[in-house]
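With this grant's support, we have settled on a layout for protein records. An illustrative entry appears below exactly as we store it:
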Amino acid sequence: MNVKTTRFGEIEVPEGDVIHLPSGLIGFPELKQYVLLDHDKDSPFKWFQSIEDGAIAFVLIDPLLFNPEYVAEVTDAELSELEVLTEEDLVISVIVTVPSNPQNMTANLKAPLIFNLKNRRGKQVILNASTYTTRHNIMEEVRKRTAGEDASTIQEAVLQAQAEKAGSEVKTGTTKKP
């Protein structure tokens, strides 16, 4: 299918690449079909482009790239619409807000997006018992992790975080520690 977008012009999206969010996103419940697009070849960022409204696209990142201890504890009931058979099929991302000064970019760690890679279904969940915020400063986290090093770009921090990254798990049910 062809989709006209504000940022990317007209793009061709194979049916198999469409991700369905039965509940939509917070603030956008009517938009239920999206596609993930690369920002750049080697960038840790992705674009989550709406298929139904070409003007709507969100920047996503794997939170473990800048916060390796991040754990999203969700219930089986919250994951039910994803039709999960095994946790290995799940991937987690968070929405990034990039202001005019990218040094102040933030990530919404309080409401991650969880995707089932097998059936291309997703859901945004709110972590009620979490101490995470909706405006977690990414560069502040990068600076903490790279103290004493040049942390002028997220790319440098991503390389270090990838080395530390043990795996991208979503915890379900009872509290589990990585």
Remarks:
- The longest helix spans residues 154-164.
- The helical segments are 76-79, 138-145, 154-164.
- Confidence is low (pLDDT under 50) at residues 160-178.
- Residues 62 and 93 are 5 Å apart (CA to CA).
